[in-house]
């Protein structure tokens, strides 16, 4: 995968990125005509990773498409293919065999090909970007519904006994970390084996262990060790530790940082110190690349966030590239990570759908599994703007929050509500996020004062009064370059005014522990002539960015920079 460090030195890995054969399949003929066996000859080339909706003639294409590439193996070997992101449905075929199906465009999955013969192999993927009322996101969401293989595809050659997973947990007391590694070893061999496992990090070698592995089985090994004088990971002080696990012929390298995150007395404490969060929401999107956001631009987006004075970014509204999270780890920037559960127009039928819930739970699982070790992640977000006044939302919240807490007790669980005054799910979360757009969709900016007053009343009534509160979305649209003598709607001046007044209100309220402006940069939106949604989105963009889509700053950017860099 594209990471900011090597995950393997011994294990052979390579990216299959590059030019693939590509053909759209608007009538879904491919499955019946077995395109995985006879790929159509009229295909064109497309770069992987990319979104097809950035290509000529495919700007608005939503539906199925087929991709093909080849890979060679120089000996009989075990192959694992890892797909970091495919929007949204993916069927994987190798040499004409269906190997698996995955739903979920922003989470990673893999397929295993044990004992693959030496030679050339054909890899075909059927990708379908069609969404409906039971998908995450559903077919109505305020960002463009891109399709494609949006992140890298990696091929790994695995020995017969290989290191499958590594999980690093720790307890931090003062500057001592008591560390627990769980290493899962898997056998594809037809013989029993005894495998020596070594693990280390800077300043610590875990006691060497051996594991007895029956043919074809998995074993999980627990290794314990303590590290003193730990350098803690913190905002702006990104101390990281690299862990290496090795057997004779395989390895796995990962990285983490030691820090504690807690809620106490209405405040969020990082390493015991009170945090005030200043940030923005950011889609991983660009008009040329869609969601196939290139690493070079990630580095630039990060530099912009730092320039703006942010210490946090919300990964709205889905798990973002792992390279991005690596960069945040390395630069001491916090992240709110969430699944693509965008509920503004969601029906209660969707909230009550077992398939929808199951998909959400699986996405949470995939998000947390992939990103468990990143110290930058402070919050797991369960959902955004679902109708949290309803019992359907309450039941779903229980499932989602239960799932998150069962996998990770070291982080805080949050969500973004658009019904703060009537919300009935507050008590399930550690931190509450409120999305409100006074000055844009409703009333003027002073509306925030009444709303906050009424929210606090509701929170008290539900026994959630002491929970830290983040203003997780607020803002206004400003068309880049549209300035005037007075702040008209849609002008840069109007947007700057709304954001400035809102920040003034929020920064005076001691119960608010952070602000996340909507949005970092303008993003493409799914405005269709036959649907009622998002009709106010001029240019088919959500224009509430502090920057335009090409990352040019608007007036609001300069103003927020001044505010975020000043004392509260
Ligand atoms: C919501 C939503 C965002 C965006 C925003 C807006 O709060 O969570 O994704 O749609 O509103 O611009 O209206």
UniProtKB/TrEMBL annotation:
Catalytic activity, EC: 3.2.1.31
EC category name: hydrolase
Key words, A-Z: Glycosidase, Hydrolase
InterPro entries per record: Beta-gal/glucu_dom_sf (IPR036156), Galactose-bd-like_sf (IPR008979), GH (IPR017853), Glyco_hydro_2 (IPR006101), Glyco_hydro_2_cat (IPR006103), Glyco_hydro_2_N (IPR006104), Ig-like_fold (IPR013783), Ig-like_GH2 (IPR006102)
Residue span, Glycoside hydrolase family 2 catalytic domain: 261-565
Domain Glycoside hydrolase family 2 immunoglobulin-like beta-sandwich: 161-256
Entry-linked SUPFAM superfamilies: (Trans)glycosidases, beta-Galactosidase/glucuronidase domain, Galactose-binding domain-like
Keyword Zinc in annotation: no
One Pfam family from the record: Glyco_hydro_2
The UniProt record lists the keyword Hydrolase: yes
Gene3D superfamilies linked to this entry: Galactose-binding domain-like, Glycosidases, Immunoglobulins
Ranges of residues in domain Glycosyl hydrolases family 2 sugar binding: 73-159
Family of this protein: Belongs to the glycosyl hydrolase 2 family.
Protein name per Swiss-Prot or TrEMBL: Beta-glucuronidase
Taxonomic classification: Bacteria, Bacillati, Bacillota, Bacilli, Bacillales
